[in-house]
Specification:
Length: about 160
């Protein structure tokens, strides 16, 4: 399937990760990211697709992962993800049909009217699934982003 998507916006917890947050006794926080998702993101970047990370939490780990992947647009502690999408639209001169958002929970649904494709991972919350244009087969942090990129962007 050919796609007109030029920007993919990603939630983190439950989308780029499986939703688990590990906190050690010293306060360290650990998150697990999927290497298949990472490869898919890198391939899509090479194909000219833009990426943005939009998350309600704040973590240096997210900044480190974004840097590894080459994602320069990172928005953390976002209460209003739809406002971020509107800013990205203006910044990159895009229309909503050129933007996809991949999320997993009810706080992601707010972007629904701002994007052309509202996509959720396979293990998303039922209310997010109800609002979704596409429900992926794969769960968050398990290659769902790669599934979307392969099917909608790279057509592999």
């Amino acid at each position: 399937m050919s796609s007109s998507i030029k920007l993919i916006c990603l939630d983190v917890d439950g989308t780029m990760t499986d939703g688990s947050i590990y906190i050690g006794t010293d306060g360290e926080i650990f998150k697990g990211f999927n290497v298949k998702d990472g490869m898919g993101i890198q391939l899509a970047l090479q194909a000219g697709i833009l990426f943005a990370i939009i998350t309600g939490r704040e973590s240096d780990i997210v900044l480190k992962r974004a840097k590894e992947l080459g994602i320069t647009s990172v928005y953390q502690k976002c209460g209003n993800k739809d406002e971020v999408i509107r800013t990205l639209k203006r910044q990159h001169q895009l229309v909503k049909e050129e933007i996809a958002y991949i999320g997993d929970d009810v706080n992601d649904v707010v972007v629904r009217d701002e994007v052309g494709l509202f996509v959720v991972v396979g293990d998303a919350h039922p209310k997010a699934k109800q609002a979704a244009d596409i429900i992926l087969n794969t769960g968050g942090g398990k290659g769902a982003i790669r599934e979307f990129i392969d099917e909608m962007i790279l057509n592999d």
